[in-house]
């Protein structure tokens, strides 16, 4: 299938014209760097969650090219750029790993990769709120403040909604626990059983995680332009992500809702006679917090233990 035919499929799926070129740039980058070939996805008008994952992933790669073309206006964006570029190679390798593992019915291992991506994302969001933290993490990654649980609590305390149940669920799988493995079809007959619900959950999870990484980077790039004109390519990505929110990142879509509903053991108490039965990524809330932490004038800060900079450390 030619690139022209791929473009036709994207157009038929109502991808905003402003974003198609960004997606294709990302797709060609991933292909040329020994990632996944464009011939492996977008093969028909009916897109699967796997196809949507590659649209989001390649948009993320396309944004990196846009950022490279537009130098920072603030030192904090430069520090954050170092953080997200450091993760780029790992994210690309994780995407290819998920492709290979899922295609070969190694669902548990693919979800272990998803758990790693969740940890990577949470660290990235933390460093978005305080970009000084990334260099401190590089020097002292075992510091208590960089433990997964500590980071999740800090993000929660700053009103950033995360589907923490996915981390817990995939941790059960990472540690070979019976209940988690059973829920992804581990006990189906055969070493490499074909379990479609597990496969779907992998692509939904991976799509949302990469989308949140992508959106974090985009929000930081746009906030860096406060008081200045937003570059055209950044505007294209804003249009593209708005489309994703309406079409691909809909938590209650029938093929995605089961990923975000909590199993009984993950249900959280929210007060007297109240419980939380589902958790998801709150993109608008994330954007709001990034603005508060980096707007001109009075800025929000993390809690005292995270209110660090390189010179203090």
* Largest sheet features: 2 strands, antiparallel
Can you tell me the residue ranges where pLDDT is under 50 for at least 5 consecutive residues? none
Q: In oligomeric terms, what are we looking at?
A: single chain
Number of strands: 2
Kindly report the spatial arrangement of strands forming the biggest sheet: 1-2
Order of helices and strands: HHHHHHHHHHHHEEH
Radius of gyration: 19 Å
The number of helical runs is 13
Shape: globular
As a percent range, the share of strand residues is under 5%
Structural class estimated from helices and strands = mainly alpha
Percentage of helical residues? 55-70%
What is the CA–CA distance across the termini? 54 Å
The mean pLDDT is 92
What's the gist of this structure?
The protein is built from 13 helices and 2 strands, in the order H-H-H-H-H-H-H-H-H-H-H-H-E-E-H. It has helices at 3-12, 17-32, 49-69, 75-103, 107-129, 132-139, 148-157, 164-174, 178-183, 196-223, 232-247, 257-260, 283-294; strands at 268-271, 274-276.
């Amino acid at each position: 299938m030619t690139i022209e035919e791929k473009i036709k499929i994207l157009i038929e799926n109502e991808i905003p014209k402003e974003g198609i070129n960004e997606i294709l740039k990302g797709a060609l980058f991933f292909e040329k760097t020994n990632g996944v070939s464009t011939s492996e996805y977008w093969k028909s008008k009916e897109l699967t969650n796997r196809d949507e994952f590659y649209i989001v992933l390649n948009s993320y790669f396309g944004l990196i090219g846009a950022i490279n073309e537009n130098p920072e206006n603030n030192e904090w964006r430069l520090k954050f750029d170092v953080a997200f570029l450091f993760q780029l190679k790992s994210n690309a390798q994780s995407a290819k790993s998920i492709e290979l593992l899922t295609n070969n019915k190694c669902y548990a291992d693919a979800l272990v990769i998803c758990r790693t991506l969740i940890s990577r994302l949470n660290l990235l969001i933390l460093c978005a709120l305080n970009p000084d933290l990334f260099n401190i993490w590089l020097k002292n990654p075992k510091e208590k403040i960089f433990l997964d649980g500590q980071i999740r609590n800090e993000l929660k305390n700053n009103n950033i909604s995360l589907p923490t149940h996915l981390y817990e669920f995939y941790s059960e799988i990472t540690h070979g626990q019976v209940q988690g493995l059973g829920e992804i079809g581990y006990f189906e007959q055969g070493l490499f059983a074909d379990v479609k619900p597990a496969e779907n959950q992998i692509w939904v999870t991976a799509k949302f995680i990469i989308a949140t990484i992508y959106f974090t980077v985009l929000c930081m790039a746009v906030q860096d332009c406060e008081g200045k004109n937003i570059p055209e390519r950044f505007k294209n990505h804003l249009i593209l992500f708005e489309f994703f929110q309406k079409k691909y990142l809909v938590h209650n879509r029938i093929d995605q809702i089961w990923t975000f509903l909590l199993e009984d053991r993950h249900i959280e108490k929210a007060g007297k006679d109240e419980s939380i039965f589902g958790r998801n990524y709150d993109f608008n809330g994330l954007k709001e917090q990034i603005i508060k932490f980096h707007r001109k004038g009075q800025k929000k800060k993390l809690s005292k233990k995270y209110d660090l900079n390189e010179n203090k450390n």
